Amino acid sequence: MGFFLETLFGGLMSGMLYALIGLGFVLIFKASGVFNFAQGAMVLVAALSMARFSEWIPAWLGFENLLLANVLAFIVSAALMFLLAVAVERFVLRHLVNQEVTTLLMATLGISYFLDGLGQIAFGSSVYSIDVGMPKDPIFILESLFEGGVLINLEDLTAAVVAALLVAALALFFQYTGTGRALRAVADDHQAAQSIGIPLNRIWVIVWSVAGLVALVAGIIWGSKFGVQFTLSTAALRALPVVILGGLTSVPGAILGGLIIGVGEKLSEVYLGSLVGGGIEIWFAYVLALVFLLFRPQGLFGEKIIDRV
Amino acid sequence: MFYRENGQFKTGYRADQQIFPIRQDRLFIGLLLAAAFVAVPLLASDYLLRAILIPFLILALAAVGLNILVGYCGQISLGTGAFMAVGAYAAWNFGVRFPGMPLVVQILLGGCFATLVGVLFGIPSLRIRGLYLAVATLAAQFFVDWAFLRIAFFTNYSSSGSVSVPPLTAFGLPVHTSLQRYLFVLVFVVVFSLLAKNLVRGAIGRQWMAIRDMDVAAAVIGIRPMYAKLTAFAVSSFIVGVAGALWGYIHLGSWEPLAFDLARSFQLLFMVIIGGLGSIMGGFFGAAFIVLVPVALTNVPHWLGLSLSVDTAAHIEHMVFGALIVFFLIAEPHGLARLWSIGKEKLRIWPFPH
What we know:
- The structure holds 2 protein chains of 2 kinds.
- Chain A is mainly alpha-helical.
- Helices cover 72% and strands 3% of the residues of chain A.
- Chain A has one domain (2-295): ABC transporter involved in vitamin B12 uptake, BtuC, CATH 1.10.3470.
- The termini of chain A are far apart.
- Chain B is mainly alpha-helical.
- The two termini of chain B are 13 Å apart.
């Protein structure tokens, strides 16, 4: 029982991380109808910039304060993600308005190739570490209930809390601010939003910046856990089943989907993986999402698909 | 002036239904085939055949297969690499387990197995559409990658996980030098392209296109979505599987699952989109683009006299490749095939455009 709970908690926490990356997909898809394959590359670039600037800035300015270095690096990286959003809107999206979904998908794949190359030229391609002072020690909880208690990684717990806070902040932002309302209007209907005077281009910049910020947070958390390297950009592929399971247009869907996939992956790896030779968590999430979609083609909370001839 | 169909009257149904109704097109295709079968073997160097023409032909074949699914039937697939892998491994397994089986039969059987897997992973398309389907086809990719890596039976319990093919012969002739390989591949590509071209302009092709344009409306006028979608998956993955078997047998010689990973799937999808959705010719244009751009990108710094480290060169290649893709999508979202047909239109009224 203790072992089961341990696996369950582990799954829930890695699920929060998936949800964090999935959130980036959902934000951009909601506001611009673009399925952003470059989200993984954005996570990579953001994490690389965070890792490198937190090294470079103290060296340039000549101080030794970890916290200050991290804060400055975070600000610089966030600014970088904003510039990226502006560039994407200016050079890509603006020219592809009203194109088909596949064309937009391919364009983001092109962006993702570009960013992979650019990030590694600008920041180097070895393995870097991010140290934002996340607690690393494991702790035991529920010791009164079970023999030996349940082992929980404090780092995972922090990450999950940060992710949850971010999600809550985003939900409030979407629900209660003017910009959030404009974003939702654009998501509902581009043309109608434009006709009542919402500037489409600015909304896209905002939403890509927010997605960039989410990517930065995801990159910091993943990076401080596993190190910053090229494989980070494939982390986004792990998060894809999450968004289709939850529904491409739903923020709560991304969270719940993340939790389901996280738990499913961990439990399947532990209880099924040993039967078939291991390593199944890579495809298990996809098959889970696939089977689920057979029964509910729009995902958990996706908008109902209505066909009209 | 030269490309004008004036005076070419169709006097019967046969003439009306030819593949290439215009004489100039027939002539062009004839010349192209003659060049491919006669001029290239006489003139091309070993490097050109081995490193450019053979990969180009095989990838073009795979792109034609994928185009049937994506361009004609409108079902986005990100699992093409998986179907190629199934074709390659199935063919190899037949070769190893049944010694003496003819090479062509092995390759075709590889295609048949790819068809089975393709139809299996095509079943969700009956319920799932668009982007959801695209992500769902990734399931095929990851599952197949995993299966060939972890299930030792498929690699005949080879310890390294990679497989290699013995010396090849077809119809008693050796398929060994680059030239022989090139001709072998060329025959496959020509036969299957003709087959595809004929399929898409027949009844089944029209059903696919109706499903692509709007599947509910197609169902209303009496097209069975299940039949149309699954045949598209079947035909597409058969051709892709054959291309995969050729890629493994002829181009690589020995390979491991990484040869057919997700990057391959994306690459093929790029070919189809850059070449032009819903066009057989587009597959060839796209393949030429994708094969030639990296070659050009590795050679340009040499010509300019720059010396870059291998690492930086690879990253710059990535960047330029990504930027080119975005550029092409913006400049011509309908692909190179559209440019081709615009060019033909222009040629028709040249030199008096009014």
